Amino acid sequence: MVAVIIILIGVAIIYYKNTIGSDNAKMVRALTQGKTKTQADVITYFKREGCGAKTITDSQYYDIVASARSHYNSIQKALDKIGLDADEVREIPPVYFEGFRGENAYTKQTASGRWVSTTYEIAWLFFSDSQVHVYRRRFNLDDDYTTEITDEYFYKDITAFTTISEEEVDRDGKRIPTTTFRMRGAGIEFECSLSEVKDFETAIRGMKQKLREKKNA
Question: CB of 106 within 8 A of CB of 47?
Fold first, then answer.
């Protein structure tokens, strides 16, 4: 009987050290101190590893992203921030881009092979008679950080609309693949993620066609 108790105690100690008492579990607890429940769930999803690790699912993380995104991706909100009416930007339909950013964020590969991160961004591009107007909102899911920009660029100053497939370095030093849209030109450095856009090529072809028309007018 004593031997059985000793074995059970030993098993319990090993289980503790490999689960809630592991270095990884302690690190995650430290990272989630002072966070909201959702932020703590996000951090745990990205950082918790090993035996006994309990995290939200990939699907649940996408639900968190969708909920946060819904606060920012309204076309009317973007127009209000830029200070335009819809009638002023009818050269081509508004273009919407969105996706994850890996730079300085926590990242992981989902069961389906897709990369996700704790940083997300959305962007609207509007086309008036003489300018391209942009709105971009970037926000973190693991803290309260968010930033937005609005800007406008004359067609005559824009040299190219391009897509770039490259790698970003995340918060842990991992290099992860990413695809971004970039607008180039005199004093122009606008870019945004395309990782969650299925048919961005069609939108970009329309933008390039409009730019050619304006350049040749």
Answer: yes
